[in-house]
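Sorry, any thoughts here?
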Amino acid sequence: MTQNEKRIFLIEELLSELPQYKDMQIPENTIEQKRLLRSLMNIRPPRPIGDKFLKVQDEYLSEEVRTKGITDSDALPASPLNDRLVLWRGDITTLKADAIVNAANSALRGCFVPCHGCVDNIIHSVSGIQLRLACDELMTAQGFDEPTGSAKITPAFNLPCRYVLHTVGPIVSGALTETHCRQLADCYCSCLALASDRGLKSVAFCCISTGEFHFPQQKAAEIAVQTASKFLQTDAQIEKVIFNVFKQEDYDIYRRLLFPLS
């Protein structure tokens, strides 16, 4: 199958699970097809699916990642203040590292809003439906929502990293409090401790809680850098902590913290 044929197959299979959309016409435009496929993956509940679907999906998503281009975290320059801290601006789903961090919600099963712009949605969309299944297995066994500041680990499936660390950041709905700050620091500590315990050497963090959860960007970056720096002082396992940013504003904030003389 070509990449286009794989995409059509995946769309048809997912639509077949939804009787209400049995007469839906698949758009001819490639961009619209990709958006439809992502939407169907986003809304799909965590339930088993056939091996053929997974085979085709994995081939399709892996090729999509390869086409976007993969960045090797080993090639990224380190901060002059700490050679184990790295700043990188780019798409976290194209980063090759031992683990990337997903800013999850407390249900920990991904974002169900079609094509939402949060990192949780993007990571699940690129990883494939197995990621939601893996998260659901963990959460069903746990029996309650994930507490703020803790972390879980799953395979990364079709992402170029090996694992995904899922953590729930604090939601700031009013004034920033010491509790918010402590909870955000807990997110970084929990992820780093889990990665170290699993023998991982490189971890890439997104900007936890600064998007939909409204944590102030400057303060969040300060907490991230301070917490990671302190953790690394007593940990010899993790060799590299990457601060991944997408927005220029976040990049400028982290650059001032990590590259103050440049």
